[in-house]
Structure formats: C-alpha cells, structure tokens
Amino acid sequence: MKFTLSTIALLASAVSAAVTDIDLYIDSQNKEVDGNSLQPLHEGAAIQYLFLGHQQNAFQYDSDTQVLSGPNPPQTPFANNFSIVDHVAWTSSSTEATKVTIIGGHSADRGFLAINGSSDGFYAVKNINDPYQYSNQQYALVYYPDGGQPDGAISVNIRTHTSDNSTSNDSSASASPSAAASSAPKVTPANGAGANAVSGAVLGGAALLAMLI
Ligand SMILES: *[C@@H]1O[C@H](CO)[C@@H](O)[C@H](O)[C@H]1NC(C)=O
Ligand SMILES: *[C@@H]1O[C@H](CO)[C@@H](O)[C@H](O)[C@H]1NC(C)=O
Ligand SMILES: *[C@@H]1O[C@H](CO)[C@@H](O)[C@H](O)[C@H]1NC(C)=O
Ligand SMILES: *[C@@H]1O[C@H](CO)[C@@H](O)[C@H](O)[C@H]1NC(C)=O
C-alpha cells in the first residue's frame, strides 16, 4: 500500500510540475541573426554548445525550479541543463543549471529569457575556439553581463515562445486525462512479483489523476 501511495504521489507530482515546452529565438537589431533559433551541437562528453541556426528545437522550462533544459540528443537520455560556463551557453547533463526566468512578455506564452533578472548580456559571436570548431562557421551564444565581450560580438536577446499552447489554457485540460492514462504503461514495475499490484496502482493513479485534472 505504501508503494501504491508513493506511485500515485510520483505521478501526481510529475503532472503538476510547471514544465512547459518552449522554443527559443534570437531577437536582435542585426538582421543576419534576428529570428534564428538556438541549436545545441555536441562538443564532447555530455556537452552541447548553443549555436544560432534555423532548425526549431523544443526546450523545456520548469518555472518552479527555474531550470531550462535542452533537447536530449539520443546518446544522453538525461536532462540537459542550460548552463553558462566561462561565458559559453551550453546544455549539459553534467553541469548545474544556471537559473533563468522569463520576463517582459506581452502575453503569457511569450517573453525574454533572463539571468539574474535581466535579458541583456547575451551575444552571438564566431571563432570562440570550441572543441569541434563549429564556431568557425556558426554564431555561438555567449554571455557577458558585465561587458568584456569579444570584438565583433553581436548583442542579442533570447525570445521565448511556449510551443505547447495547452499548458497555458486551463479549459483545454479536458484533453489531459487520456494523455495521463496512455503514459501510465510506461511505468515499469520494479519486480515481477508485484507486477499486477503495481500496474493496478498505476492505472488507479492515472484514473485518480484524470478525475483531479
Ligand atoms: C540540473 O541542475 C539542477 C539544479 O542546479 C540540479 O539539481 C541537477 O542535478 C542538474 N542535473 C544534472 C543532470 O546535472
Ligand atoms: C548572477 O548573480 C550572482 C550574484 O551577483 C553571480 O554570482 C552569478 O554569477 C550571476 N549569474 C551568472 C550566470 O552570471
Ligand atoms: C500557439 O499559439 C500561437 C499564438 O500565440 C500560434 O501562433 C501557434 O500556432 C499555436 N500553436 C499551436 C500548436 O496551437
Ligand atoms: C482557452 O481555450 C478556449 C477554447 O479553446 C478559448 O475559448 C479561450 O479563449 C482560451 N483562453 C485563453 C486564455 O487562451
């Protein structure tokens, strides 16, 4: 019974966490980079530097923990924390997240990514001598909130846009119970002996959640 309750609690917390999918775009006076997306490119073990590009990539943002995480490349099925390390913006499954907020939006699903309460300090720049030398061709995203950015760095802001509109509209939540139920079978019982009881608990949890939502 203890396991049943904790399973339900786990499912409930997973559903109630304030995580939304967001797309990130460059906002800049510079026409060459304005409107670009941010693309994580693999630069070594568990690290992806962020580059300006044209491919849309869904990031996840947890407004409770203020952790932004990047799309998972297939080789790392872990959360990829957005972090600023030595002025470089990257996503990594091995570094602490740099906490971010979303500010200045003119509607709930749009705004600007901010660190320490400010959306300034971000730059696009080439030739940062990254491990795989992508920055010879592509602009890398770097962060210099106190000046000292490299010569030729282009000042940019990062525009956010929630890609999952349903999370910002409670009246569309009626679609959620089926999502909760269909995700339930993915929870694998820890051992064979308790399998029936556990899957019963999971289904019960999903049904309970469906009623709560
Ligand atoms: C991501 O950052 C959070 C907050 O700093 C931390 O608790 C978590 O362990 C980090 N995750 C990884 C995989 O490093
Ligand atoms: C945010 O501000 C704190 C306090 O000034 C500072 O220590 C920290 O480095 C800042 N974060 C970033 C990512 O620059
Ligand atoms: C979400 O809303 C925006 C406008 O706020 C709209 O442009 C976009 O197409 C919507 N996306 C979906 C998946 O409904
Ligand atoms: C939420 O969705 C409903 C129906 O799809 C719509 O009528 C309503 O205006 C939406 N509310 C907001 C705040 O977008």
From TrEMBL:
> Where does this protein have compositionally biased stretches of type Low complexity?
163-187
Name the domain of life this protein comes from: Eukaryota
Query: What name goes with this protein?
Result: Uncharacterized protein
Segment forming the signal sequence: 1-17
Question: Where are the stretches annotated Disordered?
Answer: 153-187
Record keywords, A-Z: Signal
